[in-house]
Design brief:
The protein contains eleven helices and 14 strands. It is α/β, with parallel strands linked by helices. The termini are close together.
Length: 346
């Protein structure tokens, strides 16, 4: 199985020379960053879905369509699409169109949402959190398996012998399930035979090794073929470890302080931050430091894809660009070199 390196963006609004970008400037920047990622040799560029100040990724399919017309070979996906508050029929139409525009480069990571702003925004009740995702995933997978489709449930109008256009390629587009720690979500991914994307944004990533064991056992019990496991993580690559650590700290600290107020996260002390860099889930450092850490995760979590979320609110534009360049031109080749030497996923 080949090893893929991807970039994730949530459309975080950056700064340049102390000035904060406008939302429209940030949208246009994302298109340029996708082009830069392709030129650097990155395999996949993915866009999240958020509905709050400081993030401009609320219309992922539109952003990805813009990137599709500006690039030629890089795969284009999501990180993640909140299926619970999307309509599966509309989602199918958007991504079958994106797949046509990009000549077969579209893919999806589907999730239930770790942030819940889309529920009240689109009129959904958080009490239906599980049912919304379960029924909508069932319908979306049925749509991808072929037309016409007849379906009924409780979360949208029924479909009767319905065919959608443009139709997707045979078998549908690559679709992953994003998991933040729920064993039930791991089992659900296995039940559908879908690849698993682990979102690990804090603490020691090795604690997810049990989820990977559970996933492979569940795939076997459901009679599904072996599927890839990926890791989504946060980080920054710079020319030296010291430069990377100081740059990321300046933007990461206020973000975690805000998240702590909203979600009860720990206080972002420098001591705790340095521990996250050394043994935790942050991939911040020089190209060699980040490559060594990714290779270690490949061994311990048996991943075959690593996605780095490179943007954080307020991070300078130049630091974002340097991360993209170094990840593609130095980190990715070094990771593959290490894996080839160790015969891991080679």
């Amino acid at each position: 199985m080949s090893f893929e390196i991807g970039l994730n963006t949530f459309g975080d609004v950056p700064t340049e020379g102390g000035r904060t970008f406008s939302d429209a400037e940030t949208v246009r920047l994302l298109i340029e960053e996708a082009k830069l990622a392709e030129s650097a040799g990155i395999d996949v560029f993915s866009v999240g879905e958020h509905y709050r100040e400081g993030f401009v990724d609320s219309a992922g399919a539109v952003l990805l369509a813009g990137m599709a017309t500006a690039t030629e070979s890089i795969k284009l996906g999501t990180s993640v699409t909140v299926l619970s508050t999307n309509d599966p029929v509309r989602l199918y139409n958007e991504f079958s169109t994106l797949d046509a525009i990009s000549n077969g480069r579209a893919q999806l990571v589907l999730g239930r949402a770790s942030q819940t702003q889309s529920f009240p925004l689109f009129g959904y009740d958080l009490a239906d959190y599980e049912q919304l995702f379960e029924e909508k995933l069932e319908l979306f997978m049925q749509l991808q398996s072929g037309m016409p489709v007849t379906w009924s449930g409780t979360v949208r109008a029924p479909l009767v012998d319905q065919t959608l256009h443009p139709t997707m390629r045979a078998g549908g587009i690559p679709t992953w399930i994003g998991v933040g720690g729920s064993p039930n979500s791991v089992i659900r991914a296995a039940r559908y035979g879908l690849p698993l994307m682990l979102a690990i944004i804090g603490g020691e990533p090795q604690r997810f090794a049990g989820h990977v064991d559970l996933y492979y056992r569940a795939l076997e019990q459901f009679g599904m073929p072996r599927q890839p496991v990926g890791q989504h993580a946060l980080g920054l690559v710079a020319d030296t470890d010291e430069e990377a650590a100081d740059l990321w700290w300046e933007s990461w600290k206020p973000m975690v302080e805000q998240m702590g107020k909203e979600r009860g996260f720990y206080a972002p002390t420098r001591e705790r931050y340095d521990l996250e860099l050394a043994t935790g889930a942050l991939f911040v450092g020089s190209a060699d430091t980040v490559a060594q850490k990714i290779a270690r995760m490949t061994r311990e979590l048996r991943i075959s894809r690593f996605d780095l979320k490179y943007d954080v609110p307020g991070l300078p534009v130049g630091a974002r660009a340097r991360t993209i360049e170094l990840l593609g031109t130095e980190v990715a080749p070094r990771v593959r070199e290490i894996l080839a030497e160790e015969n891991v996923n080679a």
